[in-house]
Amino acid sequence: MDKENLVALYRQMVLIRVFEDRAAEMYAKAKIAGFLHLYNGQEAVAVGSVSALHPDDDVVVNYRDHGWALARGSSARAVMAELFGRATGTTGGRGGSMHLVDVKNRFWGGYAIVGGHLPLAAGLAAAAQYLKTGRVTLCSMGDGSTNIGTFHAALNWAKLWNLPVIFLVENNQYAMGTHYDVHSAVPMLQKAAGYNMYAEEVDGMDVMAVREAVCRVAERARKGEGPSFLNVVTYRYRGHSMADPDVQRDKAEIAQWRERDPIVRFATDVLLKRNLVTPKELEDIRESVEREVEDAIEFADKSPEPALDTLYDYIYQQPVRNMQIAGSLIRPPTIAKDIPTNGKHA
User: Are the beta carbons of 128 and 120 closer than 8 angstroms?
Assistant: First the structure.
């Protein structure tokens, strides 16, 4: 990669880190409601993966999705507005933290049910294969997802049909607060071997290692060589969610992983070592990112909430054509005019 693209990888990782830190602050101020699962420490996985894909490839991920949306090209404004529940968000303020979707970037989520998106990923890949689009589907999941039924159903189907899909495990080693050694009966790669699927283990704290691995397996998929499985070993610095006090993990373990921080490591071992940038230029990038995220917060805070009369929009395809039950035409729901709003939506 040339200097411009390498610096872009660094900036994206810094953007995700700063965005998540500020999102945590906004959650503490009650600007963000519901759950909030942060991505600190795992930035190299999303940035390295997306950099290896084509713009029209499909990406579907789990609920730890802010970093993926930013890496895939969603603006910080739109993602922050979605967290704030505002109409200017990626899904109009209806999805929130766990349901980020950006259709123009073929980013399909943001899926809140653990492992529920794996069959959807196989379906996207089956459609690409049937339509001969040449698209590859990348499906990211947590290590806990590999213990449930949909994981095995999706891998079995993908291998049976030789689908162009990459199953990427973001192995941050904890299923909520339970360590991988305790929650998984077998090593991760053995699960892929059970379906005779090509598999690799990758250093998830190294953005270039992630990028190179995804390039390899995406190329396999485009050649018609079928699905692949990547066990990307990484670590999250924060608890499972903002509701998790994170008392179960050894602080020394967290400190040990922070010594391998993907952003510091990439800046030191690649950008500075090759004299591609100066320390001052790295500081300028961080200041630029901080301004971008501050602008996103202001944008989100000033954006309107979704209008009350759009409450039922997007539940069904609009308009619903010729749908009848027991001979009665189903009509769009209406909202009573006397719903108390306390002036909030007036």
Answer: no
